[in-house]
# Entry
Amino acid sequence: MNVAVFRALQLGDLLCAVPALRALRHGLPAARITLVGLPWARAFAARFARYVDDFIEFPGFPGLPERAADTAALPAFFAEARRRRYALAVQMHGSGELTNALVLQMGAGAVGGYYRRGAPCPDPERFAEWRDDEHEVLRGLRLVARLGCAPQGTALEFPLAAPDWREWRRFGLTAERYAVVHPGSQLASRRWPPERFAAVADAL
# Structure
């Protein structure tokens, strides 16, 4: 069984999807799961090989802000997706106004995802209503539960390999004696004020 997960977003958004990917893997242990994402996410798919088996680069789409759309590459992208004959495609990229139609063009046997109340719901059995006030982790788990994959916890993960530990040692860091503060966000609506990051850093 081939399964595609469409989430062409940045690192934070993909990390928040890890519990949903874990539930998907647990619920469909024999499935071949492909992440459809931005070019950088090839490394994410490799790091999370326990949940993701393959990767397809998404060339962008008019109206989606994550990357400039390479419209010339879109026909080949959709042709490749249809060639793979996905039994299920999961639209995990936003509320669905643009992305539901996009994922439907991938030609999967079934499609699951999100829809806004009042908007068309492509499949009442496999689509979950989008809730703006819902935590991203819980939103993803609610969607995959609708697809028959029970949650396997809400914990986030970031597996480390030998090269990561070598890089860590080069920095001269000591376990449990440092903290990392990563201020900022791609979207202004998600940016916390700098003085609050400073307060957290001072407290640490």
Summary: Residues 83 and 107 are 9 Å apart (CA to CA). The mean pLDDT is 95. The radius of gyration is 18 Å. The longest strand covers residues 32-37.
